[in-house]
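Hey, weird one. I pasted the Olfactory receptor sequence into the form twice and got a warning about non-standard characters only the second time. First submission, copied straight from the form history:
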Amino acid sequence: MQENNSVTEFILLGLTQDPMKKKMVFVIFLIFYLGTVVGNLLIMVTIKSSRTLGSPMYFFLFYLSLADSCLSTSTAPRLIVDSLSATKTISYNECMTQVFALHFFGTMEVFVLILMAIDRYVAICKPLHYATIMRRQVCIILIVIAWLGAFIHSITEIILALRLPFCGPNLIDHYCCDLQPLLKLACMDTYLINLEWVSNSGSVCTGSFVTLMISYIVILHSLRNHSAEGRKKALSTCISHIIVVVLFFGPCIFIYSRPPTTFSMDKMVSVFYTIGTPFLNPFIYTLRNAEVKNAMRKLWHIKITSESKR
């Protein structure tokens, strides 16, 4: 499809054109990105190293942290580098790769959040059958299905992007490549492609969000039959999950479930779910989860002890 284009590269306008604000963008998002990578890597290492975090909930949390790290990596490094660069060009192939990565890891996060909700539903509503239903083999199969689902969705998105002919201009009013800003540059009637895009991404975001909220309402309603201690522990876990769901899906629905209308806040909303939420997730899951915090302390204690013996 690129052979039919006169545009071989794009220019990303970024979040701001103000020199002082560009420096602020560099510092703020460098901190956010490093915090995201370190925080999620710490969770993944802790889960893999701890024997106490072997339950399906932490198995899925590992992949949520992986998806968070990769989602942020698909956009944040370029935003950080471009904030100090005189030229913010991105080649056509790099742009298409970014579209694929953004949707792949974003959709992977969506599906993992659904799997975490399923895990909590079975644990709270079907406690006697939990060990049987959420076996290790079942969890692995569910994760593989999530990866395949994310891949199929991303392939669909990239096919839509590759169908767009670009004749100029090549200025993308965004900090990353995505279908919405690319549609504005295409030299063709994009009504049908936009309809397919909203039907695909919009339905994934909205449908998943509604499904998750209904499942958590059912879970919270079922807690009335539990003991006070069990209710408190389950409620703490579910609230953490609900916070993550709202923070992630709110901006996604705003961006992907509407007609091709551009708002001035679009770029900041996109920043929130591609960089902000992956940064916040480690804090939400560690600060509200005693088991994760205890496992991290043990891991840190073992590390310090081994270092002191050398």
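That's the output from the first submission. The warning seems to come from a hidden character in my clipboard, not from the data itself. The chain has a mean pLDDT of 87.
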